[in-house]
Design goal:
7-stranded mixed beta sheet, alpha/beta, 28% helix, single chain
């Protein structure tokens, strides 16, 4: 398997996951041109993509999906609630109903030789999900846009080889920043986003001897910066109630504007 972050951040998200035979995108929240350029760096074409998995309908996750669907006829996998919300968004343009595939949390499905396991997440969207992808005994997951986590989320993310985990904001930067009060309350709430500290605490419950790579993703452009997210999460791991230290693992940032180095596992 292979995972690469084409873009991850509050301004747009698109993650590639593939095997030797199947290629998918998780979200398409940047322009079709940027997605195409990212795939080209992986020696792929946009037409090679077998499906786009949509986590939820916010624009930073679906901005480019209408263009890709119309141009290449790529199937779109989304929950019924997410699909209904997308169909009411005129900015996406007309998308053929035949391209939609309805998914449900905790109901597995396959795309080629990839097994996809959607799981429910806590976010202020219609019916949001994260995705765990498995192939040949290997597994990865993208877990962002979560206001909170619980034992269910921990169970869904156990035993992964590679994880892309939200580390959205620094609480102090957010509280002191220029966002209006209602937006600060939304981000900090149970249906908002994981802070750096909370991401580190969740990661403490997920680490195991064989994990290959952790990407910290969906960083806020206004209320975070890469070095702070990295240091905060690493401190939570090293000082947390677990047998590991942060430098026992490969932890890196999934960048907003730069494609990540692909990881194979």
């Amino acid at each position: 398997m292979r995972l690469c972050s084409i873009a991850s951040g509050s301004s747009g998200n698109c993650i590639y996951v593939g095997s030797d035979h199947s290629q998918i995108l998780i979200d398409a929240g940047i322009s079709g041109k940027r997605i195409e350029n990212g795939l080209n760096e992986l020696e792929l074409k946009t037409g090679d993509i077998n499906g786009i998995l949509v986590t939820h309908e916010h624009s930073d996750h679906i901005r480019g999906i209408g263009v890709l669907a119309r141009r290449y006829g790529i199937p779109i996998y989304a929950t019924a609630g997410t699909r209904a919300a997308m169909e009411n968004m005129t900015a996406l343009g007309k998308i053929s109903p035949e391209l939609f595939r309805t998914v449900k949390a905790d109901e597995d499905f396959t795309i080629g030789d990839l097994t996809v396991k959607p799981f429910a997440i806590s976010h202020d969207a219609a019916e949001p999900v994260g995705y765990r992808i498995e192939n040949g005994g290997r597994s990865t997951a993208v877990a962002t846009d979560m206001g909170q986590y619980d034992d269910y989320i921990v169970k869904c993310l156990q035993g992964l080889d590679v994880l892309l985990l939200e580390s959205n904001h620094d609480v102090r930067m957010l509280e002191a920043g220029r966002y209006p009060y209602y937006l600060k309350k939304r981000i900090l709430g149970d249906h908002g986003h994981l802070s750096n500290e909370t991401a580190g605490q969740l990661l403490c419950r997920l680490l195991h001897d064989d994990i290959r790579q952790v990407f910290l993703g969906h960083l806020s452009q206004e209320n975070n910066y890469e070095a702070l997210a990295f240091e905060t999460v690493c401190s939570e791991v090293t000082l947390g109630d677990n047998p590991y230290k942060a430098d026992d693992f490969r932890i890196s940032i999934a960048h907003r504007d730069v494609i990540s180095e692909p990881v194979e596992f």
